[in-house]
Design goal:
By secondary structure, the chain is α+β, with helices and mostly antiparallel strands. The protein contains 13 helices and 14 strands. The longest helix has 18 residues. Helices cover 33% and strands 15% of the residues. The strands form two sheets. Strands 1, 2, 5, 6, 7, 8, 9, 10, 11, 12, 13 and 14 form a twelve-stranded mixed sheet that branches. A two-stranded antiparallel ribbon has the order 3-4.
Length: 402
């Protein structure tokens, strides 16, 4: 996910979804959103990626923390920066091998966490925090700039060929900012390597399935989603939009959370208000009198802004596979941010929402969570990662997973 959005309640954990009937906030229904949680899957505490483009890792790590507990393990705080470091190493290798003709950036995809865990293992947060540069929270501007400058210098081959030193140079930068990776570490009285620690956890990365929904590739087959941060060219199963949504809904109903990659650059994404919706644009033909007289005097920019000047529930757009595809093709929908869907809710008018856990700390309206309308989800989702057990049997069979 791009840095546009990525930079920016410790709950009791259980293995199943619980129902809630209390509004998320008691406010005047005419002037603000009032959300009533319907499904809430308990999750580990909200983390803070702070000023780093690592949302993809925070979302994936949170998802795996919740899966560990759902499978009977103890709640854990796992290291995001170990995963980030291993991705930087492999991205750099690929960048140099492809003569710099590929993406190298802090962003990543929802497949990067399982990629690292499967190949290199995992670590607890206490063993590798990745804060070795005088900051209490992640601030990666200098690190990102240093890595990019270094690799762009190397790929130009000023010595006419690559030296044997560039990997050591890369390691030196990563060590300086994130810290050296210990060969072994002690966790709860036992000594582990990253590989043995990952093997000790009650989950297998092959049990998780990436899904998307676009019309420019055949349904029920796989393809590499064409976004820059899919640097692995990971393959995603392509589903019709209604079936794609049904998988997410079934996952939540069965007590499985979902990793969610989406565009959060829309005017309807209002983080301060804890809501994301896709309001329907005003139509001049539906206006009359003073409203019409005012409307025709507005500039195009003012009219566009008026669409997102909402305080509570409003009519939203109808999303079709075709309109969703058009937004992706026009690059109105971009791969901005990774999050975790942990439940569902309704507003005071009965509209349905997904409850989403973010990684921008917990000092906001809903303590680090927010609510995404179904139209926003349908329009602006890029892809998701789900437990294969949560995919309905008929869909799993079509995908060749059964």
């Amino acid at each position: 996910m791009k840095k546009l959005a990525c930079a920016a309640l410790a709950a009791a954990i259980s293995a199943s979804a619980v129902n809630a009937a209390e509004p998320a906030e008691n406010l005047n229904a005419d002037t603000a959103f009032v959300f009533t949680d319907q499904i809430v899957i308990p999750t580990t505490s909200v983390k803070d990626q702070n000023k780093s483009g690592t949302c993809w890792c925070f979302a994936g790590t949170s998802f795996f923390e919740d899966e560990i507990v759902r499978k009977g393990g103890k709640p854990m705080d796992l290291s995001e920066m170990y995963t980030v470091r291993k991705c930087f190493e492999d991205k750099a290798e690929r960048f140099i091998r492809l003569y710099g003709e590929t993406n190298f950036a802090a962003g990543g995809s929802i497949m990067d966490v399982p990629y690292v865990w499967k190949r290199y293992g995992a670590m607890p947060e206490e063993a590798y925090r990745g804060l070795e540069y005088g900051e209490d929270k992640h601030v990666h501007g200098e690190l990102d700039a240093a890595l990019s400058a270094f690799l762009n210098a190397v790929v130009k081959k000023p010595n006419k060929k690559l030296s044997t030193a560039w990997r050591a140079g890369l390691k030196g930068i990563l060590d300086a900012y994130l810290g050296e990776v210990p060969e072994t570490f002690v966790y709860e009285g036992k000594t582990y390597t990253p590989e043995s620690f990952a093997a000790s956890l009650p989950i297998k990365t092959d049990d998780y399935v990436p899904l998307t929904s676009f019309t420019h590739h055949p349904y029920y087959e796989t393809f590499a989603v064409e976004v820059p941060d899919n640097w692995l060219w990971a393959q995603y199963y392509n589903l019709p939009l209604d079936e794609f949504k049904a998988v997410v809904d079934n996952s939540l109903e069965k007590g499985y959370t979902v990793v969610w990659a989406a565009d959060v650059s829309e005017g309807g994404f209002k983080w301060a208000d804890g809501v994301a919706i896709m309001p329907k644009g005003k139509d001049q033909g539906d206006m009359e009198g003073t409203e019409l007289a005012r409307w025709v005097k507005l500039s195009d920019k003012e009219r566009a802004n008026a669409r997102f000047d909402f305080k509570g529930p409003v009519e939203e757009i109808t999303v079709t596979p075709e309109s969703r595809q058009e937004m992706f093709d026009n690059q109105e929908t971009t791969d901005d941010h990774g999050m975790e869907i942990v439940g569902t809710a309704t507003d005071q008018k009965g509209n349905r929402y997904y409850k989403v856990k973010n990684s921008w700390d917990s000092n906001q309206k809903y303590d680090g969570f927010f609510y995404v309308s179904e139209p926003y989800f349908l329009a602006k989702t890029v892809d998701v990662l789900v437990n294969r057990e949560a995919i309905p049997a008929a869909t799993a069979k079509k995908l060749g997973l059964k």
